[in-house]
Specification:
Elements: H1 4-13, H2 17-24, E1 33-37, E2 41-46, H3 51-71, E3 79-84, E4 96-98, E5 103-107, H4 114-122, H5 132-149, H6 153-169, H7 189-209, H8 212-223, H9 239-248, H10 255-260, H11 282-331
Parallel strand pairs: 2-3, 3-5
Antiparallel strand pairs: 1-2, 4-5
Bound molecules: zinc ion (ZN).
Residues 14, 17, 118, 122, 136, 139 line the site of zinc ion (ZN).
């Protein structure tokens, strides 16, 4: 179990999470590692000092994976877990997850800490580009539900208490959840902490009436980053679209929950705006060049055909004339 200070470190780092994920992508494993192949995961761990912890770590992983699959209605093909000998590559983060690459980076010292569950919970966001308020509160509420699943009442209470204490400590500070988006959030610490606390209770209330196992598939149906569907394509899914999709998967009232935490409720009956035309990417440009090349070839073939027909006609005309001339001479 992590200390509160460690937990706060994760949370304070959260607003820049997506940006950090991009920058961390492609980070190479340090030399001197060993590999363990699990059923649907691989652990790459330091060659020295981790062997005695590997078994416990595998027990944790084998328990959290099926939970998250069920919680987020997703099936994981294969997850890569990099156990790091130090946290240098993580910068200010305790741990991180590269969601599209199904990869988790976790320092060896946190192999049995809550950070493991938090990062696995993030993997349920596969193919979705979500605002920080959604991603972080989802991961933290998912951890809480996992403790419930384990019937770990003390851990559930500690989790709730941590956020309740922050809510109380900053009760006079106004949270700014709808603005808690990566790259945008430059909140002072007290606003950040209050926002994280409010987000947690908001997401808890939302998932009480709209299960995440329905919300995430609905968002993937409408805003999957790989299908180019929806008005947002590669951008972060807007607050309005999230509210409407959450509302779409439940008959219970979710608008009042969002409203309570400062969101404006959109008109969900309005038709979504059509997707803007995509900017042609390099492969498309290549395809387009190939097409135009095909067109030129086609024109060339057509011209050659016309020329052949003309030449053939001239030849037939010439032969006809020659025969006529020969016959005329013969008759003479
Ligand atoms: Zn997180």
């Amino acid at each position: 179990m992590k200390t509160q200070k460690q937990k706060l470190k994760i949370l304070l780092a959260a607003p820049a999470l997506l940006a950090a994920l991009v920058f961390c992508a492609g980070a190479a494993n340090a030399a001197g590692t060993k590999q363990y192949e699990g059923k649907n995961y691989t652990v790459i761990y330091p060659a020295s000092g981790f062997d005695d912890k590997l078994q416990d770590f595998n027990v944790e992983i084998s328990s959290i994976i099926p939970f998250v699959e069920s919680y987020g209605a997703i099936k994981f093909d294969h997850i890569k877990i990099n156990v790091l000998s130090n946290s240098k590559q993580l910068g200010i983060y305790t741990a991180d997850s590269l969601i599209e690459q199904m990869t988790i980076n976790i320092p060896a010292q946190y192999y049995n800490a809550e950070a493991v569950y938090h990062e696995f919970c993030h993997l349920a966001q596969y193919h979705l580009s979500l605002p920080a308020w959604f991603a972080e509160s989802h991961a933290e509420v998912c951890v809480r539900r996992y403790y419930e699943h384990l019937k770990a009442a003390d851990a559930v209470k500690e989790h709730d208490d941590f956020y309740a204490q922050n809510q109380k400590k900053y009760e006079n500070v106004q949270s700014r959840i709808p603005e808690d988006l990566p790259k945008v959030n430059k909140f002072p610490d007290d606003v950040s902490i209050k926002s994280f606390a409010d987000e947690y209770f908001m997401m808890k209330a939302i998932t009480n009436v709209a299960p995440m196992a329905k919300i995430l598939p609905k968002l993937r149906e409408d805003f999957d980053v790989t299908t180019l569907k929806g008005p947002h394509r590669y951008d972060i899914i807007s607050n309005d679209n999230i509210i409407c999709d959450v509302n779409a998967v439940t008959s219970k009232d979710v608008f009042s929950i969002f409203q309570k935490y400062g969101f404006k409720i959109p008109d969900c009956s309005a038709k979504p705006k059509p997707a803007p035309e995509p900017v042609p990417a390099a492969p498309n440009a290549a395809a387009s060049a190939a097409n135009s090349s095909d067109t030129s070839t086609g024109i060339l073939i057509s011209l050659t055909g016309i020329l052949a027909v003309v030449l053939l006609s001239l030849m037939i005309f010439g032969i006809f004339k020659l025969i006529k001339f020969a016959l005329a001479r013969f008759r003479k």
